[in-house]
Write a structure and sequence with these properties.
about 15% strand; seven-stranded mixed sheet; Aspartate Aminotransferase, domain 2; 2 domains; about 400 residues; binds ligand 7TS; four-stranded antiparallel sheet; alpha/beta; Aspartate Aminotransferase, domain 1
Length: about 400
């Protein structure tokens, strides 16, 4: 059992008001809130040991380097990577995907096939389309059904000896569907294809074990799991990371440079050109500490309760349709009410202090599938409560009355 009232005290932002009403923050799938424990780590870094890393002989640089590398070890342990050099610090999920898509430019040829799913965020579609333009590879799509689940028999039929890469999110940001990535990975490996899993939405809710999954690449963003924006991680199997060329050139990623020839640094530095988000990386480690202290099992159990409660309360509202009714899903509820535009509902809810996201959620193909312009999306984290859901339902009913 989580002590939610105590947990809520860790989040200063949850104490504030918006438009004269206590903030109810249900836009966690876009970005999560930051606990004081992580804010303190950021303040401590800039107050006490802000310095560039991996290059200074002086004490501040050493301290910053130690803290940054400690954070890498925390991430390695959290995701159960075999080696710490398989963890690459990135600017976030989008950066991690682009890094891999760029790397595969030199490994794919015309006629090779790569597979994406119908449930992806634009950041797990567009970089692959760009890769296809560069290489002549062909993009295939795993279709979805009305419940927002991927159709695995169709996936099986897409796989063949030309398939080189499969990329799929672990959890859909627009619908909350948990995809059967174990099956997807196993089947891809059977034809010799590599798999990239976009974990942007899964990492706040579950603890992936990259070795048990046998996944080739796994990416996520710290800001969706109580950490700061502008930092994330890419896990890659050592053999793959050695095979891929560097993404960006610059300081830190080289062994030796001359005008005749440059040799690259080993992992992980080969993929970490330039001064990174040092403070962000350290704070990412602190965010993992914070969430692990609460415990991912307890988080999942509680968030499932919120999901079940929110779903059953919303279903009582006449004319409300929930998009995404997969058997396996996390605490994301996307919905529309009659013909009311989602933006209008979101605007009125905001006037009542309630933050939801409206629109296509950077997943336009999903909206096209349902033939809708967008949805209202409420997404819960472990610091939300049933009382907040009650207040949200009351506010939503008011909004519907005003707009009908
Ligand atoms: N992949 C998925 C599944 C996502 O949900 C997001 C962000 C990204 C990739 C991109 O992450 P970034 O940190 O690099 O921006 N999703 C959302 C969302 O649902 N609302 O705002 C951002």
């Amino acid at each position: 059992m989580l002590d939610i009232q105590n947990i809520r005290k860790d989040f200063p932002i949850l104490q504030r008001e918006v438009n004269g009403k206590p903030l109810i923050y249900f836009d966690n799938a876009a970005t999560s809130q930051t606990p004081q424990q992580v804010i303190d780590v950021i303040v401590d870094y800039y107050s006490n040991y802000n310095a560039n890393i991996h290059r200074g002989v002086h004490s501040l640089s050493q301290e910053a380097t130690d803290a940054y590398e400690q954070a890498r070890l925390k991430i390695q342990k959290h995701f159960n990577a075999k080696h710490s050099h398989e963890i690459i610090f990135t600017a976030g999920t989008t950066h991690g995907i682009n890094l891999i898509a760029n790397g595969f430019s030199s490994l794919l040829k015309k006629g090779d096939e790569i597979i994406v799913s119908a449930l992806e965020h634009h950041s797990n579609i567009v970089p692959w389309q760009m890769l296809c333009e560069r290489t002549g590879a062909i993009l295939k799509v795993i279709p979805m059904n009305e419940n927002g689940e991927l159709i695995m028999s169709a996936y099986d039929a897409l796989l063949n000896e030309n398939t080189k890469l499969v990329f799929v999110n672990h959890i859909s940001n627009a619908l909350g569907t948990i995809n059967p990535i174990e099956y997807i990975i196993k089947k891809a490996h059977a034809v010799g294809a590599a798999v990239l899993v976009d974990g942007a939405q899964s990492c706040p809710h579950i603890k992936p074990d990259v070795q048990a999954l046998d996944v080739d690449f796994y990416v996520c963003s710290a800001h969706k799991m109580c950490g700061p924006t502008g930092v994330g991680m890419l896990y890659g199997k050592e053999a793959w990371l050695n095979k891929l060329p560097p993404y960006q050139g610059g300081g830190e990623m080289i062994a030796e440079v001359s005008f005749e020839k440059t040799t690259y640094a080993g992992l992980p530095h080969k993929f970490e050109a330039g001064t990174p988000n040092i403070c962000g990386g350290i704070a990412f480690g602190a965010a993992l500490d914070y969430m692990n202290a609460i415990g991912f099992d307890a988080i999942a159990t509680y968030e499932n309760e919120l999901l079940d409660y929110g779903t059953s309360e919303l279903q009582k509202i006449e004319g409300l349709k929930i998009y995404g009714t997969a058997k396996e899903k996390t605490s994301v509820i996307s919905f529309n009410v009659g013909t009311i535009h989602p933006y209008d509902i979101g605007t009125i809810l905001d006037k009542m202090g309630i933050a939801v996201r409206t629109g296509h959620h950077c997943a336009q193909p999903i909206m096209d599938f349902y033939k809708i312009p967008g949805t209202v999306r409420a997404s819960f984290m472990f610091y939300n409560t049933k009382e907040e859901i009650d207040a949200f339902i009351t506010a939503l009913k008011k909004a519907i009355m005003m707009l009908s």
